[in-house]
Specification:
alpha/beta, 8-stranded parallel barrel, 46% helix, binds 2-phosphoglycolic acid
Length: 252
């Protein structure tokens, strides 16, 4: 049985003091989620990680929004796995469509990061999803299959089972135009089939796959009612404690 997961992606929002205020306000709602068997987490910017980690309910996952795959060295502006580990961060979002679009992040680059994270007992949240043009052309499944195949290349079954996937159609991110639960389930179910082809049915059944794209307190329960959708990666609606609590309640 896969455990439900709610992960807030704060993107480039909140200063450290704002992030700390959220962390202090979120204590009870994290308990509520955990009591109901739901994993819950937030992904602040790098400069806010410590403020959140040291002030939030310790049961809350705190994730970074990116990491560099190299151990250390001449990579100006980058953050290493050791830096994250030292402040207690062991989850990292990878391959978000905004990083793919604005920072040239590829699935092949994500694959190297996934391997580096797994080698350090950390959890990657690997994002995939198609553009509106690809969706309109009916090429979503081919596109997403390619992203999954490249992102998971060379992983053992044991490693693959530890990766969390987030399916986020780009046309639904921050647009208010969420994918219907049927469309989301169709692609998420397909991703599970692709994973089954790569790693076998038993492993594919263990891998958590989230939906993301304009998830809100009002629509989260619809996604959670679908058999292959194990949770949500949420941007805008994860930024305020009230709304975050609404998401948790919608998942109960
Ligand atoms: P959104 O963002 O919930 O604001 O649409 C989702 C995401 O980009 O992870």
């Amino acid at each position: 049985m896969r455990k439900k997961l709610l992960l807030g992606n704060w993107k480039m929002n909140k200063t450290p003091s704002e992030a700390k205020a959220f962390a202090l306000a979120a204590g009870e709602m994290v308990d509520l989620a955990v009591e109901h068997g739901i994993d819950v987490g937030v992904a602040p910017t790098f400069v806010c990680l410590e403020a959140v980690k040291s002030n939030i309910n310790p049961k809350c996952i705190v994730a970074a929004q990116n990491v560099n795959e190299h151990e250390k060295g001449a990579y100006t502006g980058e953050i290493s796995i050791a830096m994250l580990k030292e402040i207690g961060i062991d989850w990292v979002i990878l391959g978000h469509s905004e990083r793919r679009e604005y920072n040239g992040e590829t699935s092949v680059a994500c694959n190297a990061k996934i391997k580096a994270l797994l080698a350090n007992d950390m959890t990657p949240v690997y994002c995939c999803g198609e553009s509106e043009k690809t969706f309109d052309e009916g090429k979503t499944k081919d596109f997403v299959r390619h992203q999954i195949e490249e992102g998971f290349a060379g992983l053992s079954q044991e490693e693959a089972a530890k990766v969390v996937v987030a399916y986020e159609p780009i046309w639904a991110i921050g647009t208010g135009k969420s994918a219907s639960k049927e469309i989301a389930e169709d692609t998420v179910g397909y991703i599970r089939l692709v994973l089954e082809g790569l790693f076998g049915g038993a492993i594919a059944e263990q891998i958590r796959i989230l939906y993301g794209g304009s998830v809100k307190p009002e629509n989260v329960s619809a996604y959670m009612s679908m058999p292959d959708i194990d949770g949500a990666l949420v941007g805008g609606a994860s930024l305020e404690p009230d709304s975050f609590l609404g998401l948790i309640k919608g998942m109960l």
